[in-house]
Amino acid sequence: MKTAVRGKTSPQTNFEDEYRSSLREYAAGGGELALGRAYELGRRALNEQKSLIEMASLHHQAVLALIRDAESDKQREESIRAGSEFLAECLSPYEMAHRGFQDAVKALRQLNETLEEEIKRIAYAVHDEAGQLLVAVHLALAEMALELPEAQQGQVTRIRELLNEVEKHLRRYSHELRPTILDDLGWVPAIQFLADGVSKRANIPIRIDAIFSGRLAGPIETALYRIVQEALNNAVKHAAAKNIWVRARKEHHGLCCSIRDDGVGFDPHQVQTASHRNGLGLVAMQERVSAIGGTLQIESRPGHGTELSIRLPLEDSHANSNRTRR
Ligand SMILES: Nc1ncnc2c1ncn2[C@@H]1O[C@H](COP(=O)(O)OP(=O)(O)OP(=O)(O)O)[C@@H](O)[C@H]1O
Ligand SMILES: [Mg+2]
């Protein structure tokens, strides 16, 4: 077997050739130095976004070549053993990246749970505390009205009506912030409730087409609700849409939920790579989807509306219509 020890890798070196020769070098007794090259190749492959399948196929070809060139059974056996060690070392950066990803997802889940608790707190504060204050204002107003001349009673009535409107809106916002429906009936009725409110406020028809009645795990339902909430907010705020559609259905072993509008559209690539982005909505959406193991696809073009599609793998245990919530 050839035992050429090569110099430092030049950036132009073909990755596949580099892999084959480094593996050959290791199999020929290259030792720690050659194994270090396996690790460096793994890092390079990760940076160049080579998939595990590509790596496995490259390794397979490289080992086959070694076996072909081997002059005895012993050498063949040695090639296979060295090949396994080389591959394990080469893939260790992938393993580390995978662990890092799992840690990040865990941290994201915790962050979202904390955020949900905070949202709940705000929703209750808006509902209960602001509600109590409004009751106090009503009482003070009624007391004041007793001493006012008849001519000014009409103004008091008008103020009362406005206060009632404020109360109605606060109640609605607090329910949308953290709808109890979400815990009691699930994400589909919660999204229907949300869409109803948004549609009335923005005067845009929102059609919900949900062929999915099962319940999902609590954090998944909350994430779906938040994602649809942000997508509807964006459609109202940025799209100048005439219509919005929300669809949810089971696909193979997963769930697909899409939110589409016929508004002005935008260039997602430009928004996502802009050097200083102001909005947080799309980033938060992406993070929520990742935290529940799903994918988010944004299809939009200026002048052609926007469609967001969320795909989630579903295990059978996720769907359960009679389960007690968290
Ligand atoms: N449905 C849509 N139609 C048109 N443009 C959109 C749509 N959704 C997002 N955009 C564009 O993408 C940008 C980023 O959206 P994102 O939700 O991240 O931020 P934002 O809505 O501007 O702010 P935030 O969500 O933090 O309140 C928006 O500013 C807008 O230009
Ligand atoms: Mg937004």
Task: Output the number of helix runs.
Answer: 9
Uncertain runs are: 1-9, 317-326
Number of domains: 2
- In percent terms, what proportion of residues is strand? 5-15%
Output the CATH topology of the largest domain: Heat Shock Protein 90
* The CATH homologous superfamily of the largest domain: Histidine kinase-like ATPase, C-terminal domain
Going across the biggest sheet, name each strand in turn: 1-2-3-5-4
Summary keywords:
Heat Shock Protein 90, elongated, binds adenosine-5'-triphosphate, 5-stranded mixed β-sheet, binds magnesium ion, single chain
Detail the topology: elements first, then pairings.
Elements: H1 15-47, H2 52-69, H3 73-146, H4 153-177, H5 180-184, H6 187-202, E1 206-211, H7 218-238, E2 244-251, E3 254-261, H8 268-273, H9 281-291, E4 295-300, E5 306-313
Parallel strand pairs: 1-2
Antiparallel strand pairs: 2-3, 3-5, 4-5
